[in-house]
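Researcher: Next sequence.
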Amino acid sequence: MKKIALIFNIIFFSLTYAQDEINIGEKYSFYSQILKENREYWVYLPPEYEAQKEKYPVIYLLDGESNFYSLVAIQKAFTKGMYNYMPESVIVGIINTDRTRDLTPTQSSLKRDGKVFFENSGGAENFYNFLIEELKQNIEKTYRTNGYNIIVGHSFGGLFVLNTFVHHSSSFKSYVAIDPSIWWDNKKIYKDAKELLEKKNLKGFNLFIAMAKKETKANDEHSDAIRLFCTDLLDTSTRNNLRSKWKYYPEEDHGTVNMPGMYDAFKFIFKGITLPVKKIPQDPNLIEKYYKQLSEQLNFEFLPSETLINNLAEYSLSIGEMKAASKIIDYNLKNYPGNIVTDKIRAKIEQSQKENSQ
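Model: Next structure:
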């Protein structure tokens, strides 16, 4: 009987355990009237999305099937606890159907070993129209978004990011190009950028470019084109008010540079967002000061998340700084009135104040 009971317990535990799932997103699809095909996309929502009222930035991620999990992991690492390195964001991973067609801005082929590659290229403008007129509009209708949009792409995706930045600069606020294929069509995107960017005022826009290690051969067209773009255009970008950065990764190749590139890109874009947590209980005004500086830097108003401020209020209360806790929670109630969790913390603070006064 003991053996039967043990087996039953093991089976019961296994069935119970199997019911638990770990989900980081949902898959969706719709028929694109622009592309004349079904397009799939994946969506990650911040953990507190359903419980809160705040609005979120949106990150549009190309090659979603390859990069979605990595970017979600970075965001989770950057937004846990009280030390935040980026705001909680909605992540939209765009799944490929014909990658070469969609991500290359011009029709250009390449012959190698007797074979012709990239014949079906040059559809980036059509894909851009799909992205802006269909997908982006659908996301903004469906989710609480705040209007701050970021686009991220690697390789051909990075080329698409740069082409969008050069020709449709106002479409996104921040652009992340990871080891982009600037060599495409005799470096046409570099030539376009050199001609067009000087004429634009790019205040409030951000561009980050990651470059993988240069290959051992003397002439590496891919790497040389990236370096030329960065040194000739980004290193002198103060003339058009663009906030930009590029970084060389000597230890990473074209396949591995994506993860560290995205990691550094978001630390660059949101530099200054991390609050001095230990100082907040002594000076709660630092919260508004830091976020004002961040908003000025990005030319866009950012507010700290409800969860972050609630955590700071709880922390201040835990170390006996009740006045600070009260001020911090009032700041949250001003930004996000009617939040149940925030109201409960306010009640806890008032109870502690009452007990201490007795």
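Model: Strands lie at 26-32, 37-44, 56-61, 90-94, 110-112, 115-117, 145-154, 174-178, 206-212, 243-249. The first strand starts at residue 26 and ends at 32.
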